[in-house]
Amino acid sequence: MARAPRPRFEVAGIDSLILRLFDSIEESNMPWMLAATERLRASFGAALIDLVPSYTTLLLHYDLEHISASQARELITQAFADLQPASTAGSRCHSLPTWYDRRVGPELPLLAQRSGLSEAEIIRRHSGHDYQVFAIGFAPGFAFMGLVEEALATPRLSTPRKRIAPGSVGIAERQTAVYPGVSPGGWNLLGRSPAKLFDRNIDGYSLLQPGDRVRFEPIDHAEFIRLGGDDSPLETV
To answer: Which residues are CB-contacts of 206 (< 8 A; sequence separation ≥ 6)?
Structure first.
């Protein structure tokens, strides 16, 4: 069994620490990230203000009225002393219906040109893989997922769009994501999903959470509209 990661401390503020657990982005990181998150929440209890997992780090924000900086570091050290990776057998799996089409996925031709694959093959490969949710950030409900296979990896657009429609599915490098709401963005768009990713009525507000797995399910335009999708074209300004 792999050895537990030893966190490296990086000061993020007077009451915040970044715990760097890994140096590279790997799906195998997630069981350790989930285990560390659970252990730290239990260790800090009421002294914990927030704990934000990412690809390789945990941002830990604690209450200085409850514990000192030295006590916080001691709690972290104790939490990692005999850490074991968490089981992902019970992780939630989501199927996100997605309409792949140039009208809402204008970078489909670009990805085909860069990869030497047909647009149909781009769609088949993107939708044929289960993606790990690594982190939630950028916008409420925005889940950073990966890893996209190397053939589909594409840099962000050199000039981000000012307005991305909700549900837009995109790729940036080896990451994929769905924009939960209207926002600017520079990811390469492949299609659009009618799924509601940010909802104030669900626990945590976000449909997707770190540790979940996601598969994109291709649907046609009629099904997209039936499920409540908005096929309005992207704004060009």
So the answer is: 136, 140, 141, 143, 180, 197, 198, 199
Q: What gap in Å lies between CA 99 and CA 138, rounded to an integer?
A: 23
State the Cα–Cα distance between residues 98 and 105, nearest whole angstrom: 11
Q: Are 43 and 78 in contact (CB under 8 A)?
A: yes
| Nearest Cα residue to 198 out of 216, 178, 212 | 178
Within a domain: residue 104? yes
88 part of a folded domain: no
Q: Is 183 found in the same domain as 108? A: yes
pLDDT tens, the chain, 237 aa long: 567 788 999 999 999 999 999 998 888 888 899 899 999 999 999 999 999 888 899 999 999 999 999 999 999 999 998 899 887 766 799 999 999 999 999 999 999 999 999 999 999 999 999 999 998 888 888 999 999 999 999 999 999 999 999 999 999 999 999 999 999 999 999 999 999 998 877 777 888 988 899 999 999 999 999 999 999 888 754
Number of domains in the chain: 2
Evaluate whether residue 3 is within a structural domain. no
> In this structure, what token pair is assigned to residue 37?
């998150």
pTM of the predicted protein model? 0.85
Contacts of 4 (CB under 8 A, 6+ apart): 32, 80, 82, 83, 84, 85
